[in-house]
Design goal:
Blueprint lengths: L2 H5 L4 H5 L3 E6 L2 E7 L13 H17 L6 E12 L7 E11 L3 E10 L2 E14 H9 L1
Antiparallel strand pairs: 1-2, 2-4, 3-6, 4-5, 5-6
Length: 139
Amino acid sequence: MNAQEIDKQDIDFLKFIGGEVLDLGDGYAQLGFDVEPHHKQHFGVVHGGAIATLADHCGWYAAVSVLDKGFSAVTIEIKINYLKPARDEVLKAEARVVNQSKRTIFTTIEIFSKDTLVAYATGTYHVLDERKALDNAKQ
C-alpha cells in the first residue's frame, strides 16, 4: 500500500482516542495524540492501555506501508515494556519494519513522552488478502 492509500483509511478506534498519523513512509510510521484526562489512570499518568493502543496502531501502519495493493495485516502479537510513566501533554510512537516474510511482518515501536522513551514494543502482524478476509468475515 502506498502512503496516500493508508492515510485515507478511517481507523475509528484511533480517532476515538484522539490519535493521528504524523508521518508515514516505506516501513515507517509515526503516530501521536494529545493526552487528555480520559487517557490517564488513577495516579495521573497515561494508562498503559492507551499506550498499547497507540503502539499497536503505529506498528500496523508501518506494517501495511510495505504491502502491495489488495493486502492488509492484522495483529497477531504485541509485547510492550513500560519503562517510565508518561506525564506530558503529547504522546508519540514511532514504528519500523524490521522483518517481512510472505505471511508476517515484525515491527519495533518506541513510544515517547516529549523526548523521553516511556515504552518499547514489538509487534507481529499477519499479512492477508483483503478480498479473501472480507469474504470470510461474511460467512
